[in-house]
Amino acid sequence: MRFFRPASATAAVVLVLALPYEAVSHPRGHSGTGPAHSGELFGAECRVRVDGSRVTAYCHNPYPDIDRVSLHVECVHWWDLDSDGTPVEAGPAQTVRLTGRCWSEVGSAWVGHLRTD
Question: I need a surface site. Which of 24, 61, 88, 108 has the fewest CB within 10 A?
């Protein structure tokens, strides 16, 4: 029975280290779906906050190119509709606020980025 203690402790450490990475807004580079822009910095920095059944994201674009950001919310229950927000333009040095919600519980939420030309 002593075998289960180290295994459960290891599993707990791995879980704690993996959780913060789910809340990070990732798409800052080239996703492979459009033309690659060579070496240009792009992408608004977004902070997503889940409070009960509501989600709020603040995105700040420090770069000169416009970033179209949209909030995506997945709900826990099958009967609760997931939502994809309407893209909002975050211009240079601009901060935008995105909101979404579920009826019951939020499973995950993230922000999508799209470069405009």
Answer: 24
Residue 89 pLDDT exceeds 60 = yes
Span 87-97, average pLDDT: 96
Give the tens place of pLDDT for each residue, 35-45.
455 567 889 99
**Where do the domains of the chain lie, and which CATH numbers do they carry?**
43-117 (2.60.40)
Under DSSP, the state recorded for 9 is H
* CA geometry: angle 56, 87, 45, nearest 5 deg: 55
Under DSSP, is residue 17 helix (H, G, I), strand (E, B) or coil?
A: helix
Q: Can you say whether the dihedral through the CA atoms of 99, 94, 114, 22 is positive or negative?
A: negative
CB atoms within 10 A of CB 75: 21
Phi, psi of 11 (to 5 degrees): -65, -40
Cα separation, 39 vs 53, whole angstroms: 39
Q: Which amino acid is at 102?
A: C
